[in-house]
């Protein structure tokens, strides 16, 4: 009676002609580079929880680093249900 209908979460990847998105990593520190590399390896789109798994960083550390990268407009986080999808932006 009061049950919420099940929602289906769909994630679409936009292919950029099969080429990797280039990011200038000269002014990034070691941890930021590691996260950007993980996103690039996932073709520019990855769940935030997968970044935690791949890098071995804590959830808090990943969130803070992504905050810095978002402030520099290198990545964008999109809320999907209970998690975030991190997308590498074209620069």
Write up what this structure looks like.
- Helices cover 36% and strands 16% of the residues.
- It is of the alpha+beta class and 91 residues long.
- The chain has a domain at 30-88: Arc Repressor Mutant, subunit A, CATH 1.10.10.
Main attributes?
Arc Repressor Mutant, subunit A, 3-stranded antiparallel β-sheet, 3 helices, elongated, 91 residues, alpha+beta, 36% helix
Q: What's the name of the CATH homologous superfamily of the domain at 30-88?
A: Winged helix-like DNA-binding domain superfamily/Winged helix DNA-binding domain
Task: Count every helix, treating DSSP H or I runs of 4 or more residues as helices.
Answer: 3
CATH class of the domain at 30-88: Mainly Alpha
CATH topology of the domain at 30-88: Arc Repressor Mutant, subunit A
> Which strands sit side by side, in order, in the main sheet?
1-3-2
Structural class: alpha+beta
Q: How many strands, what sense, and barrel or not for the largest sheet?
A: 3 strands, antiparallel
Shape: elongated
Tell me the CATH architecture of the domain at 30-88: Orthogonal Bundle
Q: Which parts are unreliable, with pLDDT below 50 for 5 consecutive residues or more?
A: none
Residues in β-strands, percent: 15-25%
Mean pLDDT: 85
